Amino acid sequence: MNASEVAERAYRTAKNEVFSSVARRLTEVTNVVEGEAATMSDYPMSRRRRLWLWRHGFQSRTDAFYDFDAHDPDRYLSDLQVQRTALINGRWKAVFENKLVFHWLMGAFPSHRSTVYGLLADGKLVPVDAPAASGRTAASALSAPISGGTVGETAKTRVEATSTDAMGALDATEATDASAWFDDHLAPGDRFVLKPVFGGFGNDVHICSKTNDGYVLDGERTTAAEFDAFVAGLDDYLVSEFARQAAYADAFYPETPNTLRIMTMWDVDREEPFVPIATQRIGTSKSAPLDNWSQGAVMSEIDVETGELGPAATKPAYGTDWHPTHPETGAQIEGVTIPGWEEIRDGMLEIAAGFDRTPYAGWDVVVTGEGEFTIIEGNNKPSIQAMQTYRPLLADPRVRRFYEHYDVI
């Protein structure tokens, strides 16, 4: 290759990178504008106030979440900047976007992952954790998932190959009839979770249990025939065990799993993960059978050092409501300390260090006992808007440094 050809190739590469960067920025702006158009009518305000928010990169609804009177807007990650955070993990975001891949990689931390019984597709169930007839488990298809704190090259290939194809990673010859599997492997009283391999925000997740004469599906009793018909329509769904929460969490609201959302990011100077913020989510009758804040649950900030809970917030129609006690059960929230919080926090940091190819994550965690926990999901985008309801994240120098390092701000 002569000098002219080298120069031409370098020019084409640089041009493609510029076009790609411009396209990404246009997509980010488009997403924010579309979100604003869909919700701005719900947040009446003066034109001057709305223009002020837009000028700083915020949608109108953000004015209901953040305390701009007490904090400089530059200390908040703007809605435009939040769009950029989706790119921090690069191609490795597939670790969180594919729950089957995430489950496999969590095999390096078996005491903190729930059992996945199988994958549903076309009325069949393919075993995942249970030993198959071949004597292997599906997890063994991902050899060397995490080694020495670094995801191995074999795992990298598997992650990329299964980012859009869950069934293709399993041995379909081990499939059994889904209806027969539920009949044979579950007893009355057993609880389990059905969740899609792809997707997030708790969408289309179902909490189920078996009864003497049928099932309970998302709190509604159903016959065995109705449940079988429902399951037959599910494709690329995982059947997972239900992680039983500790007594302190059950006391808040027993009708839902009440999970922690723990954000981790990488300290780029010290080369280790840290927890900038964490929250306790608590369900209500509006959000049941789950504890999604966007569906009406309440959420409390956790003191990262002590594990003590602050007052719980509800997602505002306009202006955040704060609750020292649960708005329905009356259970005390503010001042409650998560049992064994230090062990939970340090355990999460150990796991985050193992996932060093994904320096940015929001972990959904069920506390199962004092210092004991099960991770039920990882998220590529940790719900920044909800987190910043409590305080602006960029006020923490480590957080600001992290986002600067990854060209978010």
Write structural notes for this entry:
This protein is of the alpha+beta class and 409 residues long. It has a domain at 3-87. It is 30% helix and 21% strand. It has helices at residues 3-39, 47-55, 79-84, 94-97, 99-105, 153-161, 178-185, 224-232, 247-252, 341-354, 384-387, 397-405, and strands spanning 116-121, 124-127, 176-177, 191-196, 206-210, 214-217, 220-223, 237-241, 260-267, 272-274, 278-282, 298-302, 309-314, 321-323, 360-369, 372-379. Strands 3-2-1-8-4-5-6-7 form an eight-stranded antiparallel sheet, sandwiched between helices. Strands 9, 10, 11, 12, 13, 14, 15 and 16 form an eight-stranded antiparallel sheet that branches. A hairpin with a 2-residue loop joins β1 (116-121) and β2.
Q: How much strand?
A: 15-25%
Q: What is the arithmetic mean of pLDDT?
A: 86
N to C succession of SSEs: HHHHHEEHEHEEEEHEHEEEEEEHEEHH
SSE-based structural type: alpha+beta
Q: How many helices?
A: 12
- The percentage helix is 25-40%
Notable traits:
alpha+beta, eight-stranded antiparallel β-sheet, globular
Secondary structure blueprint with pairings:
Elements: H1 3-39, H2 47-55, H3 79-84, H4 94-97, H5 99-105, E1 116-121, E2 124-127, H6 153-161, E3 176-177, H7 178-185, E4 191-196, E5 206-210, E6 214-217, E7 220-223, H8 224-232, E8 237-241, H9 247-252, E9 260-267, E10 272-274, E11 278-282, E12 298-302, E13 309-314, E14 321-323, H10 341-354, E15 360-369, E16 372-379, H11 384-387, H12 397-405
Antiparallel strand pairs: 1-2, 1-8, 2-3, 4-5, 4-8, 5-6, 6-7, 9-10, 9-11, 9-15, 11-12, 12-13, 13-14, 15-16
